[in-house]
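Go through this one:
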Amino acid sequence: MAQLTEEPARELGIRIISPDRPGISGSSLKHDRKLADWPHIVERLLDHLDIGEFRMLAISGGAPYAYATAAAMPDRLRAIAIVCGAIPMTELEDARGLLPLYRWMLALYRSRPQLLRRLFCAARPILALRPPVRLRPLLLKMLMLRPCDAESLRDAAAFEAIFESQRRAWRGSAEGVMADAQIYAQTWGFSLEDVRGPVRLWHGTQDRAFSVRLAEEVAKRLPNCKARFIENAGHYSLPIRYMREILSDLISL
């Protein structure tokens, strides 16, 4: 989804660095990787680029990685912005706030992980394809999106920005995507209360992936969090419509 930042970042004079996680797209696969590995990767990248302090933007599944980095690098990471962020799923007492597909995958991972792996491998050839433009309206209907998300994704540039990142992930390997998915089903290795730096949490009231109720619970646990819950915005429409405002607020910290 880094493409969503291109135009507003240029207008605001922001340098965006968007590394692929291990095993995603062309990045080398690392077996049995943990969430705790990510801050070390970020640190090496920053040192290589001769960057001192920085801020981090995380959309959807990037949220755990931003939280982990904030907890591990408080002296270097000035602030994070979490947009429609994933939540610590192992701590859920009631999973009804998750997208049904996520609930199904989480249950399958716990009961029949090898079957889930085979399903990932079977899905890869399809999910790595770029659908023809004429089929996009049908795809949007099949996804059963909130009206606000469907409306935002009718824009061709927004559609490409959202779905190209997913296609790139699957083009690498099913194993890389599976390794990434496993991290969401595992304990993070730290608590949200350990993230003491500034957090800007943005979440749509119409988010189907992670309900606004779950986002509110996360916000309450973060010691230094300012949350904005946007009416009539969903998992896709929020970053599409509000990226300039999100980035402008982040660089003010």
Summary: Strands lie at 54-59, 77-83, 199-204, 225-230. Residues 2-15+32-251 form a domain with the Rossmann fold fold (CATH 3.40.50.1820). DSSP finds eleven helices and four strands in the chain. The longest strand covers residues 77-83.
